[in-house]
Amino acid sequence: MEADLGDFLRSRRARIQPEDVGLQAYGRRRVPGLRREEVAQLAGVSVDYYIRLEQGRGPSVSDAVLDAIARVLRLDETEHAYLRTVARPRAGASAPASSQRVRPGLRLVLDSLAGAPAFILGRRMDVLAWNALGDAVLGFSRMPAAERNMPRQVFLEPAARELYPDWAAVAAETVAYLRLYAGLHPNDRQLAALVGELSLKSEDFRRLWADHQVKSKTGGVKRINHAVAGELVLPYETLGAAGDPGQSLVVYTPEPGSETAERIALLASWAAAPAPAG
């Protein structure tokens, strides 16, 4: 699956109005945002050079040119890094290995977080492992093994819109992170299959994927409407796994003394209780 530099640039310049960058808007505009010749003028490159770059047929582009384009299009740090990645894909980059394994040491760390819901994400946001409280909150063990994937849960699980009260924001963040991954791994055939399936089955995913938003996920707050515990307000941190850039540890950290912390403690007791016989 190839990341589309042209679509990304077109989507970014559509956000910028001429007045935003000190230009006069002359004549009728057929498309929103800046024209290609305006981006070229502001970035200090020829119109032909920029057009060839946007069409994906330009020469190897320098950091200085990419930095200038990022400045004109007002890209944030993540978008700027993404632009560099898709503008200069690594030659001969191979597809990621088909399977991932969680190191025993990392699994011990996961299990030691007994008071916090936690899980490990792999490539394509596949769910690789979880602790007991993470399972109690998100129900990973009830998912078929082939479907333990966060984008699948968000877009294909009917109950997801009830599980996440802020579903629209969760969906947008999920797609933006998946798009970021696509830029780093353009030859991932499993990603292409996942995006194809989600595009076929979810109109919301198609719309968000076409918007070309990119975003990293290092932390934030997620609201979860749990069937047993009620509403949970869960700050979270995403920590990269040392030695395996394709894995990350996600830990939900409820505020001490909060109502959510009390509900998480009750949920932990419920999850630890032995199942009734039969």
Quick structural overview:
With 278 residues, this protein is α+β, with helices and mostly antiparallel strands. Helix content is 45%, strand content 12%. Helix 2 (36-43) crosses helix 4 and helix 8 (150-156) packs across helix 10 (167-184).
Descriptive notes:
This protein is an alpha+beta fold and 278 residues long. The chain has 13 helices and 5 strands. The longest helix has 18 residues, at 167-184. It starts with a helix and ends in a 6-residue tail after the last helix. The mean pLDDT is 88.
What general outline do the C-alpha atoms trace?
elongated
Oligomeric grouping of the chains:
single chain
* Alpha-carbon Rg, integer: 22 Å
Q: Count the E strands.
A: 5
What percentage of amino acids are in beta strands?
Answer: 5-15%
Relative helix content: 40-55%
How many strands, which pairing sense, and closed or not: the largest β-sheet? Answer: 5 strands, antiparallel
Q: Helical region count?
A: 13
Order of SSEs:
HHHHHHEEHHHHHHEEEH
Layout of secondary structure:
Layout: H1 5-13, H2 36-43, H3 47-54, H4 63-72, H5 77-87, H6 104-112, E1 118-121, E2 127-130, H7 132-138, H8 150-156, H9 160-163, H10 167-184, H11 189-201, H12 203-210, E3 219-226, E4 230-240, E5 248-252, H13 259-272
Antiparallel strand pairs: 1-2, 1-5, 3-4, 4-5
Helix pairs in contact: 2-3, 2-4, 4-5, 7-13, 8-10, 10-12, 11-12
